[in-house]
Amino acid sequence: MAEVQKADVSIYNNLNTQKPMSLADMLNIGKSSYELSKLKELYPAMISGEQARSKAAEIGASQAEQLLDPNVAKGKAESKKAIVDLNETELKNLTAHSNATISGIQKLFNKQDLTAQDVVREATELNRIHGGSPQALEKTLQGIPNGGSQTDLKAWLAQQLATTTGSLSQLEKQYPSGILPGQLPQTQTPQVQETKTPQAPGVTPQAMNLPDFSQPVKTPYPMRNPNSPYLPMPSEEADKVSGINYRDNLVSRQSQLTTEKRNVEEVIKEAKKLKESIFPTSGIAGAITRKVSTWAGDPTYIQLSKDLANTTLSNMKALGLKTDADKQLSSAANGDYTYPPEILLNIADRAQADMKNIDMQATGAQKFTDRFGDNNMKKFQQEWSKNADSKIFQIMNLAEDGSMPTQDKQKEIAKLLGPVGSKERKTAEQKYRNLIKLQQTGSLE
């Protein structure tokens, strides 16, 4: 896309929260074309007028800056009393660039099977034609609903079309009834120190070539500046409360993990001893039955099952999983059911994996809040859930187990992920790197 000095792309941040609307409502092409034609009728009078030296002219140029990329408009002076000069060349450039943008958007909107890649290609070509910079292209692509449906993409395009035609029609509103910029009362605009709100990174062409689980998710809301008042978007406050609760549950559980890890290690140790003592390498079924009656009624073993079940329930609660569906787990937590040793060991392995998940996820959620805010926590949750494979956490625990020989670790990893070089292993390695990045930075960006 073409450039205008100091473009502000924050106008695109609210796109995904718009109420559903028909395609005709989103585009409003008829109204936009009418406004554009009326504006063109005013150009001869505007061009023949004096250079813009009024507050209205500055507002008009500011609207243009929101549309175009840096370095196209050249009107703002550096002094405190500077006012934008809007001359014939700038008006013609504005018209040409705006019309090219409108044509490109409408072409994309009519495309069958529209994808985000189509939008990137069209934006790249327009940026090349108008001499834009790579930085300008990146800013233009911010806010594209990567991975979204055609409806999401077309809604985003409709927003760009509305912004383009709206910026042009704004000039007409500033100069009604043929009044030229030079004929308006001249005023000085006071210099105001603006409190800037940080902007979330947008999708890049490079990220779009990654597998889905490695692609960053767009923030649902703007990144709020705590020092600036703002009007919350629909459902934003509810999502913020949900984000806080999600993070608090993880952090609260994280603080208990040191003790819980020791308890689970003790369960595994005792379960292995019991397993070796009650299952003979040879014998008849009657002997095994007698052994089963021994562990099933053993008070120590009942307590092991109870402790492990309670640990598992606590993990599930921290991870936001429903705990009322597993009646057997609830019975074990109450001491009414005892797991066989083999099953108990499997549950213990999964419990350790869940604790590794919670520990890393809690740290990542804290990092995310510092960067993007609790109102955008759904972004982190989606990025984490796409990569949080329990097998990966089990393997991480195996790697940290100093008591297990390396050869045995390799056998266990092969059971979980298959042989070296398998597709499943390659996917797991990529997800592992993503999880580490999320833990350390809070985001895949």
Q: Could you please describe the fold and organization of this structure?
A:
This protein is mainly alpha-helical. It has two domains: 9-184 and 199-209, no CATH class; 236-441, no CATH class. Helices cover 61% and strands 0% of the residues. It is built from 18 helices and no strands. The chain has helices spanning 23-27, 29-48, 55-67, 88-109, 116-129, 134-140, 150-174, 205-208, 236-254, 257-278, 285-296, 299-318, 327-333, 341-372, 377-385, 390-400, 406-417, 423-441. Helix 9 packs across helix 14, helix 10 (257-278) packs antiparallel against helix 14 (341-372) and helix 14 (341-372) crosses helix 16. It is elongated. It starts with 22 loop residues before the first helix and ends with a helix. Residues 1-9, 11-31, 45-54, 64-77, 79-87, 171-197 and 281-294 have low confidence and may be disordered.
